[in-house]
Amino acid sequence: MNPLTDKPAFEIGVYTLGDIVRDPHTGKTASAGQRLKEILEAAKLADRLGLDVFGVGEHHRLDYAVSSPPVVLAAVAQATERIRLTSTTTVLSTVDPVRLFEDFATLDLLSDGRAEVMAGRGAFIESFPLFGFDTADYDGLFEENSQLFRLLNENEVVDWSGQYRSPLRNAEIAPRPVQPEIPFWIGVGGTPESAIRAGRLGAGMALAILGGPLGRFQPFADLYRQAGAEAGHDPASLRVGVTGHGFLAEDGETARDTFYPYYSGYWNEVNRQRGMAFRMSREDFDQVTGPDNALFVGSPEEVTEKILRQHELFGHTRFLAQLDIGGQPYEQVARSIELLANEVAPAVRKAIG
């Protein structure tokens, strides 16, 4: 398959944030080096099994293994042949857009045209003091950097001035990617304003569906397409994707029983980091794995049905699952990838046509 021209009508892939969490059964915690090796193995497996996209997210904390998605994805590019490579997400408020474009244009050259950028404002704010930014500029930085990245994507030589960085005067933006432009997505969580921004910029919108009933996300897709049309963008260029947490096993009950200790441990740790005492009960977990809720956990048939149900609501053309959550052994993660690629992906593509 040529990654530049041969894209399926509906893309399915996996992504990782490289979280480093204690295994609830063994009490052991993987090292950052081990997690990076597992990420590389997962990417190779996803590529070999025919999945379409592999994503790597950015954090700047000791409990995550990945702070530089383009470096990790460059390693993945050399070990894979056809799978598309994206950040999931880049914290665009605290990275220089010129540096970001150069890194991903280089990745695009190394991968023969497979690079993409998914940008977000970030669930954690540690990158702001780390790189000398003020959290009071949280939204302004993201807006300006998004605009500048789009300009860099479209032009080899740029003149630009803004509020948060030095101006560019007749600046040569190099290297240029293999693709005419690096595909640019904006990750959207719980705010309508983010969906409107993605549409106004003409970027793809990646809906992060991590909790709550599916119906509450449908207005985001409508707002995105409306904002894109009002900004003059071709409706055919306005792409919606869905990202979410998942785990697959041969039957649904086994999947839920196996995944619950890892998932509850993951959220217990995340909530502790945020100063919250909430712990996920089995009742809470079973609710969010229900057919009309967010979590993609179950048998291949159950996960397929949930993706198709969401396709009816959002009309999306891409689904990415985060499968390596909460300190799971790699063998479990690999089995989820196999079931997603071998059973879910064919069934979804056949149903959507």
Short description:
The protein has 353 residues and is α/β, with parallel strands linked by helices. 43% of the residues lie in helices and 16% in strands. The strands form two sheets. An eight-stranded parallel β-barrel has the order 1-2-3-5-8-9-10-12, surrounded by nine helices. The protein has a two-stranded antiparallel sheet with strand order 6-7.
Description:
The chain is α/β, with parallel strands linked by helices and 353 residues long. It is built from eleven helices and twelve strands. The strands form two sheets. An eight-stranded parallel beta barrel has the order 1-2-3-5-8-9-10-12, surrounded by nine helices. Strands 6-7 form a two-stranded antiparallel ribbon. Strand 4, helix 3 and strand 5 form a beta-alpha-beta unit. Helix 3 crosses helix 5 and helix 10 packs across helix 11. The protein is globular.
Encode the helix/strand succession as letters.
Answer: EHEHEEHEHHEEEHEHEHHEHEH
Shape: globular
Q: Please state the structural category.
A: alpha/beta
Cα(first) to Cα(last) distance is 19 Å
Mean pLDDT across the residues is 95
SS strand fraction:
15-25%
Number of strands: 12
Going across the biggest sheet, name each strand in turn. Answer: 1-2-3-5-8-9-10-12
Total of helices: 11
Can you give the helix content as a percent range? 40-55%
Sketch the major β-sheet.
Answer: 8 strands, parallel, barrel
